[in-house]
Specification:
Length: about 425
């Protein structure tokens, strides 16, 4: 994935204090039924991945300036290929290789993935998404994503949410940016600066949180507001629980993350809301420090409304030079499920914050080495989801998504794609395809 040349301008904004002392996340007094997530750029896909993986725990999500869940083949190029690690994603999901509209990844394939993952016991029951809110922002002038891809999250999640009134779509003449209403920022449709935040005349932080939590909980930020310090926490405490599906047991996350506790939660002990925000590519701590977080607009909304904010951070690696969240499989084949390394780390954070008495702590994580009985090996349970017949037909027509009693591991060619079979149990393999090179 490529980024355009960015402008490293000097932003003079009124910012909260920033604490350099690294602490540990601890149990907090939060409303467990109102946990929400959002993300900008690749962070928007990470929010979607968490929603799919743990839909029983997440009340709603917002995705800002990115495409839909599990877009692309989900595999890395062959070892002897000249392609970069993220090129297969870019070929299928972005403008970078000038694809025809017909060559872009079909959202129906992402829907089929959700159904397959549920059959395999790798995600929560998608029925949990029904009636939950989704906010989608897409810039019509994005250098990276065609508008149809930017609006893809609504198409993917509508069959599961079912109620179209729970999905808000915001389209604006914007680049691949996080919209803000703060003065001193670049124009909404202009080139990105280092923080990838622009003055679009409205705060995406406020609008998205108000949509997914409702006006009952989210009021506009106060004009006169004293913010608390932004804190650092040790992310490495949560690097555990990985299986063999993760490359080198490495979630490709920074050792440090950020978090914010409003005064009402920190001093007065009020039961507060909990929100995770995932940064985009090249706006992680090791690139821009805390400045993307400090300028995002989320802290003002959090302080006004009593929202504890968690800002996990990625880092650079050979397979992710732009510090993107895993949207193309660089941490392992099951990156978009409960087995994904980054998903495991975020879930560990949720468990710590919510406390040991949380019922989800008692639920063991799925594992590819589980007995065959732990997995569905028939497509019949899909019908219980009651999604539209067209979507079910699209899934069932691709009969090779899940193969029973498979032959030994092999590569399979189908149409113009290269497909790889990954064994998830002795009797079940999952097929993943990528475009022909």
């Amino acid at each position: 994935m490529q980024l355009p040349v960015v402008t490293w301008g000097l932003l003079v904004l009124c910012l909260p204090k920033f604490s350099v002392a690294v602490t540990s996340l601890h149990r907090m007094n939060v409303k467990k039924d109102l946990v929400t997530m959002s993300g900008h750029s690749a962070g928007g896909s990470m929010a979607q991945t968490m929603f799919v993986s743990y839909s029983s725990r997440i009340k709603g999500i917002a995705t800002l300036s990115h495409t839909f869940y599990r877009c692309g083949p989900g595999v890395l190029p062959d070892a002897n290929s000249t392609l970069q690690p993220d090129d297969l994603f870019d070929i299928s999901c972005t403008n970078l290789f000038n694809p025809l509209v017909s060559e872009l990844y079909d959202p129906n394939d992402a829907i089929a993935d959700i159904l397959s993952y549920f059959q395999l016991g790798l995600i929560d029951d998608p029925k949990n998404m029904e009636g939950k809110p989704l906010y989608v922002f897409s810039g019509s002038m994005s250098y990276l994503f065609p508008l149809q891809m930017g609006l893809g999250p609504a198409q993917v999640f509508q069959p599961f949410i079912k109620n179209k009134d729970m999905i808000k779509i915001a389209v604006f003449p914007a680049n691949l940016t996080l919209p803000s209403n703060k003065p001193g920022l670049p124009s909404c449709s202009g080139p990105l600066d280092a923080l990838q935040i622009a003055n679009c005349g409205f705060s995406a932080a406020f609008e998205s949180l108000q949509w997914i939590l409702g006006k009952k909980y989210i009021r506009p930020p106060s004009k006169v507001l004293k913010l608390q310090p932004l804190l650092e926490f040790d992310q490495t405490e949560f690097f555990y629980g990985f299986g063999e599906n993760v490359f080198d047991d490495d979630p490709v996350m920074d050792s440090i993350g950020y978090y914010y506790i409003p005064k009402a939660c920190r001093i007065y002990g009020h039961k507060c809301l909990l929100h995770f925000y995932f940064h985009g590519c090249m706006t992680s701590r090791d690139v821009v420090g805390p400045n993307h977080v400090l300028n995002s607009g989320f802290l003002e909304v959090a302080e006004t409304n009593g929202i504890i904010m968690i800002f996990p951070q990625t880092r650079q690696s050979v397979l992710s030079t732009l510090r993107c969240w895993d949207v193309y499989g660089y941490t392992g084949d099951f990156f978009a499920t409960q087995l994904g390394a980054q998903v495991i780390v975020i879930k560990n954070m949720m468990d710590r914050i919510m406390g040991p008495d949380d019922p989800y702590d008692k639920k063991p994580a799925p594992t590819p080495e589980a007995e065959p009985a732990d997995y569905y090996t028939s497509p019949k349970p899909v019908k219980n989801l009651e999604v539209s017949p067209e979507l079910l037909r699209a899934y069932e027509d691709d009969e090779d998504n899940v193969l029973q009693n498979p032959a030994p591991y092999q590569d399979v060619g189908r149409k113009n794609r290269h497909c790889t079979l990954t064994r998830v149990s002795p009797d079940t393999v999952l097929k993943r395809c990528r475009p022909a090179e």
